[in-house]
Design brief:
Length: 313
């Protein structure tokens, strides 16, 4: 819907909701101040936004959004209802590790292979109350001969979906070690693949060292956008990392003494398809699954690791 502008202070800025509530269906981007989404209820909504800078100075601003009319939300499509009343099984999604088809049901994603859970015209054969905002098949856009790092049938293992400032989507594919950008265009897009970020993708990494890419990643987090340049934090688990010698680091599960994990921040330029590693931290262990990363209001980086192997032979 729009982006909050800041003058003065020292970047990076962090935005948060101080008082009140945004209209249902809208979200505030903490890193860029973008208010995005589709409102699901009409009315006038008053709230205040707090913004803090790198020197921990902050200021609040009172705002109001008026929604003249909004589509009626279908509560059957909410994430909590999917979990509580029949869950994913109600949609035929019985195996999370085989999801390959992208479906956005009021903002939620499903990836499924083995059967079609939603037709390309937006209808669902068994759930007439479900409407798909976007349908696209990974089989139409990816090389089926590029086998996953962890073996079939878990071809992609998509683990994150991020809404971008230009209204498109970033999709993290752990088992391909790629982050994809998908043409969503605020619900009006084609679902086509715009680019692939990672080893063997569409971007050139400055320095040319394949070990500096992320592998089996988690939690892509957009920190800032400046024109064609995006600063992106990624937790790099490092499973089967391609080393400087072109060889993978080892098996994807313990023991793997030659694998390591990192907290990373990349800058990508979509006008030149150039990527650069801006910052990294090596904690000295291998976290073969899970993880997250974010930048705090004071400029420090916080990251979380899940399954760690500390001893490296």
């Amino acid at each position: 819907m729009g982006t909050l502008n800041v003058s003065g202070g020292t970047a990076p800025y962090v935005f948060s909701l101080a008082t009140g509530q945004l209209p249902a269906g809208l979200i505030l981007g903490a890193a860029n101040g973008t208010i995005s989404g589709t409102p699901t209820a009409a009315g006038s909504f008053s709230f205040s936004i707090s913004v803090s800078d790198a020197k921990e100075l902050s200021k609040q601003q009172s705002l109001q959004i008026t929604v003249a009319s909004a589509p009626v939300a279908n509560p059957g499509n909410s994430f909590s209802n999917l979990q509580q009343s029949g869950g994913w099984g109600a949609y035929g999604l019985t195996d999370v590790y085989k999801r390959q088809e992208l479906l956005l049901l009021h903002g939620f994603q499903f990836w499924d292979v083995g059967h079609v859970v939603c037709s390309a015209d937006g209808s669902h054969p068994a759930q007439p109350n479900v409407h798909c905002l976007l349908y696209t098949s990974s089989f139409d856009h990816l090389d089926v001969n590029r086998y996953p790092y962890f073996g079939l049938p878990d071809w992609t293992h998509s683990n994150a979906l991020v809404y971008t400032a230009d209204g498109n989507l970033l999709l993290s594919m752990r088992n391909q070690s790629w982050i994809l950008k998908i043409d969503y265009a605020n619900g009006m897009g084609s679902g086509n693949l715009l680019w692939k970020l990672g080893q063997d993708g569409d971007f050139t990494l400055l320095g040319g060292d394949p070990s500096q890419w992320f592998y089996a990643q988690h939690y892509p987090n957009i920190l800032s956008v400046n024109g064609s340049q995006t600063t992106l934090a990624v937790y790099d688990d490092g499973n089967l990392r391609i080393g400087s010698d072109g060889q993978p680091c080892g098996p994807p599960v313990p023991p793997a003494p030659d694998c390591y994990s990192r907290a990373t921040i990349f800058q990508i330029d979509e006008s030149t398809n150039i990527a650069s590693l801006q910052w990294q931290y090596l904690p000295g262990f291998f976290s073969y699954w899970g993880g997250s990363i974010d930048v705090l209001s004071n400029g420090d980086v916080e990251f979380d690791s899940k399954m760690c192997i500390r001893d490296r032979l």
